[in-house]
Amino acid sequence: MKTSFHILFLILLQIFFFKVAAQNDSIPSFKDCKSCPEMVTIPTGKVYIGSYKEEIGRKQSDRKRVLATISKPFALAAKEVTLGQYRVFMEETKYKSKAAIRDGEPLVGCNYYDGKQYGYIANHNWKNPGYAQREDAPVVCVSWSDANAYANWLSKKTGRKYRIPSAVEFEYASRAGSSSPWYWGTNPEEACEYANIGDRAFGDKYPTRPSFPCTDGYVYTAPVGKFKPNKFGLYDMVGNAWEWTEDCYKRDLTDAPLDGTADTNDPENNCAWRTPKGGSWISGIAWSRAAVRSADGADYKSFMLGFRVAAEIEKK
């Protein structure tokens, strides 16, 4: 009873504080070029981020429940950057990606899971992550460094400042006013209406992996925007591909910013590790919640890890 009252109190308090657009079609959006991502304006407001102790699937690395305040609107891509969009960037720039380094040796290719173990496969890359990819699927096998290079290219191309979103911005935008583990609520059986996650079809292929009790129709990535959006008009904020954020990964978030600023103050490790969020097509309940965060090297590449971009509202 005490737990239920506590959750209800948080939800009511959040509704009191949170400012959210009444209808999806009232949220301004823009697209700066034909191959650019469609951007949605994210309004200011307050929302509780992190997880409460009783939350389903909670992990020790989750941020403790705390109120975040976004006082300046920003833009976020409505969908993950697609393979086709990333291809334009690669063809225009001839960009050369850096290899991750482990024990002094470069890791060539992209990390992959064969149902038993993870490991880098030399001939896997953003064009071939180990499974068939459509042009409108999220690009994967891209590092934080690659995502940052893409954002910088968009900035030069359009005259608007593009960047990788901070971890607080990402969770704020994902929740869209929600205090629950997912923006649709607390029921994992509803997940397949809103997200491409580790579902029954995935569980049939990889029976040792935990999965959701529903079927989303995809074993690997799905075309972006295939599932229901959240209240901000954002798609795939849970599942499909893990997404890079700007923040350095830190175990202790006690002093981490709560205003949407990225936490890049990491003199000890020089921000060598970043913080992906959102989960992917491989993620079960614990690894797909709004509060969950991962830790990966800035040059690490994985067949389940992509990104979306943020941008300033006004061009300078």
Question: What's the tally of helices?
Answer: 6
- Main beta-sheet annotation: 5 strands, antiparallel
Question: What percent strand?
Answer: 5-15%
Mean pLDDT: 91
Which oligomeric state applies?
Answer: single chain
Q: What structural class should be given to the helix and strand makeup?
A: alpha+beta
Rough outline? globular
Number of strands: 15
Determine the N-to-C terminus distance.
53 Å
The parts where pLDDT drops under 50 for at least 5 residues are: 11-26
Helix content: 10-25%
What's the arrangement of strands in the largest beta sheet?
Answer: 1-2-5-15-10
**Radius of gyration over alpha carbons?**
18 Å
Order of helices and strands: HEEEEEHEEEEHEHHHEEEEE
Task: Write structural notes for this entry.
The protein has helices spanning 2-17, 83-93, 144-158, 167-175, 191-194, 200-205; strands at 29-30, 39-42, 45-49, 66-70, 74-77, 100-102, 105-107, 110-113, 118-121, 162-163, 242-243, 273-274, 296-297, 305-306, 310-311. The protein has 316 residues and is an alpha+beta fold. The strands form six sheets. It has a five-stranded antiparallel β-sheet with strand order 1-2-5-15-10. A hairpin with a 2-residue loop joins strand 6 and strand 7. The chain is globular.
